[in-house]
Amino acid sequence: MTQTATGLGRHDAAKQQMERQRVLNRLKLWDALFARLTFAAALLVLIVLGAVFVSLIEGAWPAFRTFGLKFFVTEAWNPVTEKFGAVAPIYGTLVTSFIAMLIAVPIGLGIAIFLTELCPYALRRPIGIAIELLAGIPSIIYGIWGLFFFAPFFQQTVQPALISAFRNVPVLSELFAGPPYGIGILTAGIILAIMVLPIISAISRDVFETVPAVLKESAYGLGCTRWEVVRSVVMPYTKVGLIGGFMLGLGRALGETMAVTFVVGNAHRISASILAPGTTISATIANEFTEAVSDLHTASLIALGLILFLITFTVLALARLMLLRLEVKAGR
Amino acid sequence: MILDQARFAQRKRRSFIVMALCWGAAAAGLGALLVILGTLLSKGLGGIRPEVFTQMTPPPGSDGGLLNPIVGSLIITSLGVLIGTPIGILAGTYMAEYGRYSKLTSVIRFVNDVLLSAPSIVMGLFVYAVMVAPMGHFSGLAGSVALSLLVIPIVIRTTEDMLLLVPNALREAATALGMPRSLVIRRVAYKAARAGIITGVLLAVARISGETAPLLFTALNDQFWSTNIFAPMASLPVVIFQFSLSPYEDWQRLAWVGALIITFAVLALSVVARWLGTSRVAK
User: Fold this and answer.
1) In chain B, residues 192-231 whose CB comes closer than 8 Å to chain A
2) Which of A19, B105, B148, B217 is 20 to 30 A off residue B247, Cα-Cα?
3) Is ipTM over 0.90?
4) What are residue A157's phi and psi, to 5 degrees?
5) For helices A295-331 and B120-127, angle between their N-to-C axes, nearest 10 degrees
């Protein structure tokens, strides 16, 4: 910027000094401005979270005022008589996610063990990448596939078999009762499982890879079999991270909308049979929000959204805390 | 030392069974995902014709294409990225540069991680409450804002991670030359972290281009050609949702075509993002 002032007059030197001061001042201003700007953007994250809570509570207020705590224990959902209760969607959300985790956790763990212990080295990267790519497929694809491909197949082959197989078993006959609709709570759970499978496998694999090779080698050196190494060394070492990963998957499953809306059946009732149609919080909102006429209906749907946000927020926060603890441990 | 042969054989057998189950799990998981892609190809590929990209969505029973939802998706997605990216990069910059060791940063990081996987339909509800309801009508812009709320956490995360990877020696060298801090960040740190930040933005684009739930009650839908972002606007995911749940066969066929287009766009974006990410490491 400023060259040496040799050979220039005193006047020029002073001018240069002023010019230099001007540039420096401008830089100083920019510096402060940029710092403030980044700070404001960072604060925006907290503001968004707060605003989501505030606006949902405000929007849901009419429903809570009208129904009070009964909102959480009423099963009825009737836009005509304006009676709304959140039990059926909450039940559907929890049960579909539970089924999804029941299926996806063992299979996801199996895939992770396969990728870290069994798979030939040449295939590890391609399969790993394929799983990560599949985690990015939009959920609506799983939904449309579930409705047109999986549900008919399920209805014709698996469901009749389940119904007849458990007909005379005391508890299970209730669980697998009724006509095979194809769509329903169980179908939604299975589709959700397929959807969260890549997420769970990818996280479990990453977590398994943090196990120091020395630990595994010493276990093998003692004569442990592969399964014993996985069960007694790898899994205990990665316990916290694994649970964190499962809970991230659970968070996804709880909040998932499109994959479920297609196949859950959208019936506001709680049936003992998991083959029967049901509904979830997100499916209810997706189906009814634009068609809700009365203010109370809209408010009840927003109240459902608030409940969903609270549930997922808790699950995700716990998951993050656990993963954070793992990071701290790994950092030591 | 005497080895209990029977017990050893049993342990080996148990291990073999579990490992076989793991092979089975991998085969089942990958198989299911392959079947999904296979169905998508077999149902969608036949419907890919030039008209899909040149004509509007048809009324039931007649021929048509997906031009307006494709263009709508492009507009809504790019606007969402345009709104979300600068905010995300600036916030990530604060966390990695100015407030690296502050308490606030760890709080923001925690909140951001939670928002990263928050249900997208809730973001739709939020934008409905703060934009659509006060303005009195659905709009493409509201859809973009809802999507930008999904972009911000992803971009923040990658920007922070990438800036933290920039060696401090670079910053010190630039500072020693007399560069003010904001210039150090913009001219040196951003340059060093550029590939990683671009990867993050591409991942965000891939994530939001298939999002349906937040658009349902923000951008809504439009049967006709419209590029007015203050009016309801068609988008590919919403059209797929509507058409596939309709009883009309030609609508369902178009839904599959749309699903195929979205999936491959998303996969292509992820591959490019991944390639950018690894080429940086290789350098």
Assistant:
1) 203, 206-207, 209-213, 216-217, 220
2) B217
3) no
4) -110, -55
5) 130
User: If phi over 0 gives left and psi between -120 and 50 gives alpha, with beta otherwise, what is residue A266?
Assistant: left
Of B97, B117, B212, the CB nearest to A251: B117
pLDDT digits (tens, 9 = 90+) for A76-133: 888 888 888 888 999 999 999 999 999 999 999 999 999 998 888 888 888 888 888 8
- The Cα–Cα gap between B217 and B215 comes to 6
Q: B191-244, pLDDT tens digit by residue? A: 999 888 998 899 899 889 888 888 988 888 877 777 788 888 888 999 999 888
Instruction: Name which of B235, B223, B232, B225 is nearest B59 in CA terms.
Output: B223
Residues contacting residue B157 through CB under 8 Å, at least 6 positions apart:
B92, B112, B113, B116, B200
Could you tell me how far CA A314 lies from the centroid of its own chain? Answer: 12
3-state SS, residue A87: helix
Query: Is A258–B180 a contact, with Cβ atoms under 8 angstroms apart?
Result: no
User: Alpha carbon of A28 to those of A18, A34, B171, B173: distances in Å?
Assistant: 15, 10, 18, 19
> What count of residues does chain A have?
332
User: Is B252 in contact with A148 (Cβ distance < 8 A)?
Assistant: yes
Q: What is chain B's alpha carbon radius of gyration, rounded to the nearest angstrom?
A: 24
Q: Taking Cα atoms as reference points, which of A235, A239, A234, A246 lies closest to residue A326? A: A239
Q: Residue A171 contacts by C-beta under 8 Å, 6 or more apart in sequence?
A: none
Radius of gyration of the CA atoms of chain A, in A: 28
Instruction: Please count the CA atoms within 13 angstroms of the CA of B171 that sit on its side-chain side.
Output: 16
A37 vs B: CB within 8 A? yes
d(CA B68, CA B57) in angstroms, rounded, equals 7
* Torsions phi, psi for A70 (to 5 deg): -65, -20
